[in-house]
Amino acid sequence: MKALVFLGERNLEIQDVPKPEGEFIVKVMGSTICGTDLKAYLHGHPQFQPPTILGHEFYGKVEQAPAHTGYKPGDFVVVAPYGDCGKCEACLNNLPEQCVDKSHVSNGSFAEYVAVPAPLVERGVIRLDNPDYVYCLTEPLACVLIALEQMQPRKGDQILVIGGGSMGTLIAMALLDMGVDTYVSEVNAQRKAHLDSWQIPNGTTEEVYNAKRYNKIFVAVNVKELVEEAVARVNDGGMVHVFAGLPKGTMLDLSAADIHYRKVTITGSSGFSLQTFQESHKRIAARPSNYKRLITDFFPLERGGEAFELLVSGDAYKVLITTNLD
Q1: Fold observed for domain 142-268
Q2: Which of 163, 162, 143 is nearest to 269 (CA)?
Q3: Can you give the pLDDT at residue 314?
Q4: What is the mean pLDDT of residues 126-155?
Q5: What strand order describes the sheet that includes 52-53?
Q6: Close Cβ partners of 298 (under 8 Å, ≥ 6 residues apart)
Q7: Would you tell me how many other CB atoms lie within 10 Å of the CB of residue 288?
Q8: Parts of the chain belonging to CATH 3.40.50.720
Q9: Start-end ranges of CATH 3.90.180.10 in the chain?
């Protein structure tokens, strides 16, 4: 099969690689580029040693499936790239992100085919009644929903999302969809224009902080000073969620008074669960056009390198790499 193979920093190449083996095979139709993919492309990543295939936000069409699964060739599906086991100590303590026995698909989704292991088929594969590339956002929105579970947003909250990139904007879209007052801090003029066109309230850091006080803040930019500022500025008794992954070894300089006297809570998240994956699909199915606008650019697999470079330039939100489109 054809695959976009990651060979090292800023080095991608279309190669013929073996088609994955397995009973449940999905023909990939499209896959969006994740921030983790971009980090690996630019700087390498300990979990993705080259040569390897990146990509995990995808939808496709069943190529083959055992009859007992209820799927048949031609069914359109969205697939979770991994799934928590539901049985280990972490899962039983409602920490699915820390599951020690996850099931994983065979390879990255910047390829023509992916095999899905049996333990993942039941809860990690969802049939699409109205197939559309918007369902590539099921996995990233599922990551957002894990964060929302921790922050418990509700009407009456004043929420700030720091960072108007793809994930910060997805957090804001999900919150606004719930009817929660939400504002986005963003300094990039092009991103601000997109946020304005999508009617997402936004401003520069100082503008949003000066406009009102916030009881919950999501930090969706991997800059430690923004986390530190959020902790200092959130309301008494407020919560700060570190959504963006900071570089390994980062130490935060925080005032103990904010935690001890002002009762500020700091939390974070770094993935999704199969439960939030299923909930994410339901949310997208209910309002596909609300989320579809986040995917701004499209490239065929053969031009995958250009797709990554477009993201490097900062001139796109989510970029879809298409494969096997009929």
Answers
A1: Rossmann fold (3.40.50)
A2: 143
A3: 86
A4: 97
A5: 11-16, 2-8, 52-53
A6: 319, 320, 322
A7: 16
A8: 142-268
A9: 2-131+293-322
Residue 325: pLDDT over 80: no
Summarize the confidence of residues 36-44 as an average pLDDT: 93
* Length of the chain counted residue by residue: 326
Query: What's the rounded mean pLDDT across residues 64-92?
Result: 97
Integer Cα distance of 124 and 18 in angstroms: 24
Burial class of 35 by CB neighbour count within 10 A (0 to 12, 13 to 18, 19+):
middle
Beta strand segments in 39-112, E: 52-53, 57-64, 76-79, 82-83, 103-104
- Per-residue tokens: 15: 């190669």
| Fold category of 2-131+293-322 in CATH | Quinone Oxidoreductase; Chain A, domain 1 (3.90.180)
DSSP E strands in 82-209: the ranges are 82-83, 103-104, 113-115, 125-127, 158-162, 181-185, 202-203
Structure tokens at 177: 């969809």
For the segment 17-25, the average pLDDT, to the nearest whole number, is 97
d(CA 101, CA 21): 21
